[in-house]
Design a protein that fits this description.
Layout: H1 2-14, H2 16-37, H3 51-62, E1 70-76, H4 85-99, E2 104-107, H5 110-113, E3 122-129, H6 139-143, H7 145-148, H8 150-154, E4 158-163, H9 174-190, H10 193-218, H11 225-255, H12 260-287, H13 295-326, H14 340-351, H15 357-367, H16 369-384, E5 392-393, H17 405-416, E6 425-430, H18 435-446, E7 451-460, E8 463-470, H19 477-488, H20 490-493, E9 500-504, H21 506-540, H22 544-569, H23 574-577, E10 584-585, H24 588-618, H25 621-649, H26 656-688, H27 697-702, H28 711-727
Parallel strand pairs: 5-10
Antiparallel strand pairs: 1-3, 1-4, 2-3, 6-8, 6-9, 7-8
Helix pairs in contact: 1-2, 1-12, 1-13, 2-10, 2-13, 9-10, 9-11, 9-25, 10-11, 10-13, 11-12, 11-13, 11-25, 11-26, 12-13, 12-21, 12-24, 15-25, 15-26, 16-22, 16-26, 21-22, 21-24, 22-24, 22-26, 24-25, 24-26, 25-26
């Protein structure tokens, strides 16, 4: 593989303007097609085969209006009376404005529907759209919600919005924050503005193409909004990291006297091989999400995998082209005063590797290998303890900042109606053709423990829609128990009516999604572990290194999930992050395991491949652990800081789901890079010695050698250089 990567990079360098132009054309084409497609992602999450989804299908077929996406409008006058003449007139004008918006098919009147709180301080109206997918509601319609509320507000009524569709607060450009931090780290790492900027350029190309691709695809299929955030996080971080690893090796080659062309081509053939394996490991793990059998996770995994694949391509082709454009300037140090110290440190380390800070750290780890190993494992196990108390769910408006309109609406509804009004269940009764029969179903449901009220919403085409209000909120475990009770006792509940009932609605859908994901988690974890073992066995042609890597991956992922539970579920540091304690995002463990597997394999390959290089040359396993870790420490540290900063930048997002994903990824990356790969790995390899590279003789014959360290390429190039010198 290293030979092909060498030739690819050399071709890209020599045809730099054509390569650069090709990528620019792809970017422009993607932007144009995305704009023409009109695609939009959606926040709605569903899983075919569940009862809640079956209920949606029945409604779509027999009562389409009831299956449409909705906005709940909360009118409030706390301490006053929302039903007063002046307030009522303002509210009714707003209801007319809402009904006139495009795509709106119905707006309930709280004064005639009886949805006024007992204390008459809050009234609830529901806006229903002509599409079941919230993402298909046009921006013009969503933008019209706030202006439509002006009449009620002028009358002195507070108006808030919640539901599947509501006006969102302006998002902070969190990606820009991460990019700025990345640029600072890159400039300090390379001691050059030019060199530090090149990985960012490649990242922008890859991410823009990926995001436009997601937009185009969303015009043809449902794509969860979280897919975009996950793909952006991975696209930026992986593209920067992969370019960082190759460019770092290229600068080392240039310092050894090679021309820019030869330096970057050799880097692609050596470090590029590790980058390919690292990228493939992430892509395989993300594609492995499809084994869970949940469509939105499959799409999320494939989208993110495609983004990582693009990151890999731009690092292997666009980066050499950019080096060709800037020439030797890409390997020069900046004369800025703040970068002189970085330049001096790098030059000293080049003359004497023992002066590398990473080498000094690795020497300390190897000297204290047993203590480091024990303390590291015990420490990570302690951090992972909260994971045992993880409560999976889909956080709703109650997890948003208190300033968010959906959170205000949630609190007003809970305070004046009861928590269950935020988690109303939609029960679809089939084989019902009379209103009296539907009333019987509603009365039977009202007698179930945990139900506050049940009312018939519609009777048509042989079905009845009954709104059931539980006594507890949508994220309360008792609400999930109620859903299961109604489903398990459905035959008894509807025995006297002849109806067949299905429990649906957003709350029931969230419960079904969480249950399905909980059941799928062990299967997915086993799949990831097997994939990790096979990939790393092929990369390093040994059995013990993959086993060690898998144990490290499990420690990192466990610690990240433990920290997630402590912060987002238990509320440690909630005021600092602007969050409210709630359930752990149900699909977070799956995507975190997938991504942590890929990223931990990245750092494992980068560190262990350098250790193996030294061991192959010297046969001294303990010295190889020191030298290999020392030489890879700086670039792994920079890569981890960049990746973690990009993930952490998503803590500035308004969406609590995105906050939790960004936090977990950032913690996982930092733990895996600094604790596992740069401490536990060299400690364990120093303890195991040469035994860590053991494999049976038949193993060497059966498993091909991918030459991940580029040894054969180095031998060929050294021989070629020797021949050229002889000829001269």
């Amino acid at each position: 593989m290293s030979r092909y990567l060498y030739r690819l990079a050399r071709w890209s360098y020599r045809h730099r303007w054509a390569t650069l132009a090709g990528w620019i054309v792809i970017v422009v084409a993607a932007v144009v097609l995305a704009g023409a497609s009109g695609g939009k992602t959606t926040d709605a999450i569903s899983i075919p085969g569940t009862e809640a989804q079956h209920a949606v299908s029945v409604l779509k077929a027999k009562l389409p209006a009831a299956s449409g996406a909705t906005t709940q409008v909360v009118f409030a006058d706390e301490g006053g009376n929302v039903t007063s003449a002046a307030h009522k007139a303002g509210v009714e004008k707003t209801l007319k404005e809402l009904k006139a918006l495009p795509q709106v098919v119905a707006v309930s009147d709280p004064f005639t529907a009886g949805s006024v709180s007992p204390d008459k301080q809050v009234a609830l109206a529901t806006v229903t759209y002509n599409t079941p997918a919230a993402g298909n509601v046009k921006d013009a319609t969503v933008d019209g919600l706030k202006p439509a509320a002006s009449d009620a507000r002028h009358a002195g009524v507070q108006v808030e919005f919640s539901g599947a569709v509501y006006p969102q607060a302006a998002e902070v450009n969190s990606e820009a924050v991460g990019m700025m931090v990345a640029l600072i780290v890159l400039v300090l790492t390379f001691g050059s503005l030019v060199a530090g900027g090149m990985p960012l350029v490649t990242a922008v190309f890859g991410v823009v193409i990926s995001m436009m691709g997601v937009t185009i695809l969303s015009a043809f299929t449902d794509i969860a909004s979280a897919s975009t955030s996950v793909a952006t996080m991975l696209g930026l971080s992986c593209a920067i990291d992969y370019a960082l690893f190759i460019l770092s090796r290229a600068r080392t080659n240039a310092a050894a006297g090679h021309s820019p062309e030869e330096a970057v081509s050799r880097a692609a053939g050596t470090a590029g091989s590790s980058v390919v394996f690292a990228g493939l490991s992430v892509m395989i793990a993300l594609c492995g999400m499809s084994v869970v059998g949940i469509p939105f996770l499959t799409v999320m995994g494939l989208t993110a995998a495609a983004t990582v694949g693009l990151a890999l391509l731009v690092a292997l082709t666009l980066l050499p082209a950019l080096v060709g454009v800037v020439g030797s300037r890409g390997f020069r140090y900046s004369r800025l005063p703040g970068l002189r110290r970085a330049r001096a440190a790098t030059e000293n380390a080049a003359r004497d590797p023992e002066k590398l800070a990473g080498t000094r750290w690795a020497s300390w780890v190897v000297r204290n290998r047993v203590k480091v190993l024990v303390l590291g494992v015990v420490g990570l196990a302690v951090i992972a303890l909260p994971f045992s108390k993880m409560d999976l769910g889909l956080p709703g408006a109650n997890a948003r900042p208190t300033s968010d309109t959906s959170r205000v609406a949630y609190d007003l509804t809970s305070d004046h109606f009861g928590a269950g009004y935020n988690g109303t269940l939609t029960v679809v009764a089939q084989d019902v053709d009379r209103t009296a029969q539907a009333q019987q179903v509603a009365a039977a449901l009202g007698k179930v423990d945990g139900v506050v009220s049940s009312n018939v919403a519609a009777v048509t085409n042989g079905i009845a829609v009954v709104s059931v209000v539980p006594s507890t909120g949508p994220n309360d475990p008792k609400t999930a128990d109620l859903v299961h009770t109604i489903r398990d006792d459905s035959s008894r509940i509807a025995a006297d009516t002849g109806a067949h009932i299905l429990v649906g609605g957003q709350t029931a859908t969230d419960i079904d999604v969480s249950a399905k994901l909980s059941d799928a988690l062990p299967v997915f974890l086993a799949t990831v572990v097997v994939l990790a073992f096979l990939l790393l066995t092929f990369a390093f042609r040994t059995i013990l290194v993959p086993l060690k890597s898998i144990l490290g991956f499990l420690l990192s992922a466990g610690a990240a999930l433990g920290a997630q539970v402590a912060v987002f579920q238990w509320g440690w540091g909630q005021h600092l992050l602007g969050i409210a304690p709630t359930q752990t995002l149900s699909f977070l463990p799956v995507i975190l395991l997938a991504i942590m597997f890929g990223l931990s394999s990245d750092y494992e390959i980068f560190v262990v491949s350098r250790i193996k290089e030294h061991y192959t040359r010297t046969g001294d396993a303990r010295a190889a652990a020191v030298q290999g870790t020392g030489q890879s420490a700086r670039v792994v540290t920079s890569a981890a800081l960049i990746m973690a900063s990009i993930f952490a930048s998503f803590l500035f997002a308004n969406d609590p789901m995105i906050k939790s994903i960004g936090f977990s990824f950032a913690v996982g990356v930092l733990i895996d890079a600094f604790v596992v790969r740069l401490a536990l790995v060299p400690a364990l390899m120093a303890i195991a010695g040469s035994r860590i590279w053991y494999h049976p003789r038949w193993f060497a014959r059966v498993v091909p050698d991918p030459d991940i360290e580029g040894e054969r390429l180095e031998e060929e190039l050294t021989a070629r250089d020797a021949r050229e010198l002889t000829t001269v």
